[in-house]
């Protein structure tokens, strides 16, 4: 196939036939042409044999930039560290495509000795070279590149900023967190998404408020990346925002928020603040509502079901996890008054039974206690009525006697 391409190029340039029928001497003359050397370099890179490295290193000094670029890509594909010094030298090539290929090759080899040269390439005049340098630094993962990559987050080109954010996430150094939080406000949606992904990989809780804000981003991919990042961090502060994200217009955002919610529930602990405890107590109901809306037809169903299972496991882990919530003062007073009134009513009712025998009274007391345990409200009302009746029975004779006396005195 490659030979056919070379023949077609020859026909376009000098005319003649593009068939594969020239004699052997004519093919030997083609060895001096650059496209043959380029094809040879690409073939050696595809084979991947380290014994080709010295020849490819020499090809980095070829007169044609096509050949030099192919040699750089081939050296990166082979991945032999002995090519690193020559590739570092190729970062100063006059052609930008060769410099980009050299940066990509150094990133694939992953040798830390190339880091200083790649940091210098972040200042290249061409944006695609700067992008390749940032990606290579992320591939190597050396923390000494973090300050330079933080500076690259302010590059004029969006692709370079995106590559810098990606590289900082691969390195995972917490020093990059403030700069990546700032990149969540970038004008380019790809940069914001890369910053959210990087913050999730670093896993620093300082990023949680900014990621919660990113759940309201105008771009759906950014919202999804923010939800995934919150899942990686697993901070309970994200639970309310993730519940709101379950109503997102994009299904993939809802899916990511549901899985993030499952992870965040694992980190929930009983709150000391009463208001926070009340909000926590509503969590299973809100998840259940979202689960009902999701049904079984959407991808959100399974993570939400898993979130409810995590909640049940969490409540079983603690004796008193999120309840009972302290009732208002008037409720507590009413409960105490009801208990006191119930005790008084029981005493009054038992006073009416003083005429009964001890055995009968004791049996009636046991039956009343059983009813009270089984039907507390109904028995309480009944006892209250009996108490009122007992008062009337005690007071009524006295009132009738007083009325008679006054009537007789009047006559």
Characterise this structure.
Helix 16 runs antiparallel to helix 17 and helix 17 packs parallel to helix 20. The protein is mostly helical and 411 residues long. The chain is 72% helix and 0% strand. The longest helix has 35 residues. It has 23 helices and no strands. The N terminus is likely disordered. It is rod-shaped, with a radius of gyration of 41 Å.
Short key terms for the protein model shown above:
mainly alpha, rod-shaped, 411 residues
The quaternary structure here is single chain
| Helix content class | over 70%
Shape call? rod-shaped
Strand content: under 5%
Number of beta strands: 0
* Main sheet properties: none
- What order do the SSEs take from the amino end to the carboxyl end, as H and E? HHHHHHHHHHHHHHHHHHHHHHH
Uncertain ranges: 1-30, 317-325
- What would the average pLDDT be, to the nearest integer? 76
SSE blueprint and pairings:
Elements: H1 2-14, H2 24-30, H3 34-47, H4 53-59, H5 65-78, H6 84-90, H7 96-109, H8 115-121, H9 127-140, H10 146-152, H11 158-171, H12 177-183, H13 189-202, H14 208-214, H15 220-233, H16 239-245, H17 251-266, H18 274-281, H19 283-294, H20 301-317, H21 329-352, H22 358-374, H23 376-410
How do you describe this structure in short?
It contains 23 helices and no strands. The chain has 411 residues and is mainly α.
């Amino acid at each position: 196939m490659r030979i056919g391409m070379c023949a077609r190029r020859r026909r376009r340039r000098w005319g003649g036939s593009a068939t594969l029928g020239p004699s052997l001497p004519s093919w030997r003359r083609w060895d001096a042409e650059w496209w043959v050397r380029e094809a040879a370099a690409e073939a050696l890179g595809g084979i991947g044999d380290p014994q080709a490295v010295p020849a490819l290193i020499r090809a980095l000094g070829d007169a044609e930039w096509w050949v030099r670029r192919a040699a750089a890509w081939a050296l990166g594909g082979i991945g032999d560290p002995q090519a690193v010094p020559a590739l570092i030298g190729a970062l100063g090539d006059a052609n930008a495509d060769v410099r980009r290929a050299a940066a990509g090759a150094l990133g694939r080899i992953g040798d830390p000795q190339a880091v200083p040269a790649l940091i210098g390439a972040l200042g290249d005049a061409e944006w695609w070279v700067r992008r390749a340098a940032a990606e290579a630094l992320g591939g190597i993962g050396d923390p000494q590149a973090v300050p330079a990559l933080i500076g690259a987050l302010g590059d004029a080109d969006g692709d370079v900023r995106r590559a810098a954010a990606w590289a900082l996430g691969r390195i995972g150094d917490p020093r990059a967190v403030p700069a990546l939080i700032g990149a969540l406000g970038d004008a380019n949606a790809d940069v914001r998404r890369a910053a959210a992904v990087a913050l999730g990989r670093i896993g620093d809780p300082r990023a949680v408020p900014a990621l919660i804000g990113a759940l309201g981003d105008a771009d759906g991919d950014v919202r999804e990346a923010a939800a995934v990042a919150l899942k990686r961090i697993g901070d309970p502060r994200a639970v309310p925002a993730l519940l709101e994200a379950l109503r997102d217009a994009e299904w993939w955002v809802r899916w990511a928020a549901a899985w993030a919610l499952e992870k965040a529930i694992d980190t929930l602990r009983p709150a000391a603040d009463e208001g926070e405890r009340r909000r926590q107590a509503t969590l299973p109901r809100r998840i259940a509502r979202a689960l009902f809306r999701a049904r079984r037809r959407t991808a959100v169903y399974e993570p939400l079901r898993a979130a409810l299972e995590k909640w049940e496991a969490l409540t079983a882990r603690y004796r008193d996890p999120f309840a009972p919530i302290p009732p208002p003062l008037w409720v507590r007073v009413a409960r105490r008054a009801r208990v006191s009134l119930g005790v008084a009513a029981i005493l009054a009712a038992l006073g009416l039974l003083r005429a009964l025998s001890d055995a009968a009274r004791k049996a009636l007391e046991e039956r009343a206690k059983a009813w009270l345990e089984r039907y507390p409200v109904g028995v309480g009302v009944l006892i209250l009525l009996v108490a009122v009746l007992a008062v009337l029975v005690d007071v009524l004779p006295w009132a009738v006697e007083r009325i008679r006396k006054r009537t007789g005195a009047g006559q």
